[in-house]
Amino acid sequence: MSVDQELVDLAESIFADARDAEQTGFDAELWKNLEQTGLARLTLPEAAGGSEATLPDLAAVLTAAGAFAARVPLVETDLLAGWLAHAAGLEVPSGPLTAVAGALEVTPSGDGARVVGTLARVPWARAAAAIVVLSGDHVVVLEPSAVTISEGVNLAEEPRDTIAVDATVAAGAVGTAPAGAGAEFRLRAALGRALLLAGAARGALAESVRYAGERVQFGRPIGKFQAIQQQLALAAAEVAAAAAATAAAARTAAVDGFAADSTAFAVAAAKARAGEAAGQVARIAHQVHGAIGFTREHDLRLVTTRLWAWRDEDGSDAQWNDEIGKRVLAAGADGLWPLVTGTP
Q1: Predicted structure pTM score
Q2: What is the pLDDT of residues 138-150, one digit of tens each?
Q3: Residue limits of the Acyl-CoA dehydrogenase/oxidase N-terminal domain (predicted)?
């Protein structure tokens, strides 16, 4: 399943132009450009305001977003909130969206439902035009006016807010979750985060290679020293491994669907491998840059803080590796090779 190179070039150009080390929070101008070019809802059907592209296409866009530290809720809008609302038969709101799976008290009441509860660490809640919540068998679309937001951030200063709701929502804002929605939501979130991680690792490597070619020590660029070259080669191998694992997971999900065991295994491997790469690449990048790389003014922090933050979001390396181990044990000796290769 090939990826449109023009799409990749467009995404890279848009994200590169928007990169700004001095700003934090939601980038409204970048989001406007993504909406105008159809990248904001790439895989959603046309009826839901989407561009009907493939998961591998979205994977390429998300990887570019990670590489340039894009300050927008692409994963949340396309892979999670848009999909969830549409799958529940609800109208997909316009604008940037976010989504979360958590326990709310949803009680049918007249022409709508009473919704009560608190949800923590909701990505981009303060910037969202709507918050789509998966709570048990219910999908609820909450408008900002219906919730109270307590602002929080992750290590990369991306919004991770707490929302409290005690309101009655209209009937058109409450739907029935499709079968297996909880498991699919978890896989979609992990895949999206893994793709962002792979992109951020690529961005950190690019920054390091550039700096090693510019920084002169003892009369020559530090990139000419064998020790630096070896470290950059190790980082490049980690970046390649993360890219391969995440691209394979996106292709598997596109072909087999998120309900397939093959997709669950591929996504687990992708998130675990991208998370492991994140730690190694961030370490090497900062070693190559030296003290300057730790300053707030340097662009390197844009990608390395995201590597550290994202590796623990939507399941840590340990959690996904544990799941891989359980699947391997369940497959047994005869099933190991088919499990790893995806063959019958």
Answers
A1: 0.96
A2: 999 999 999 999 9
A3: 16-81
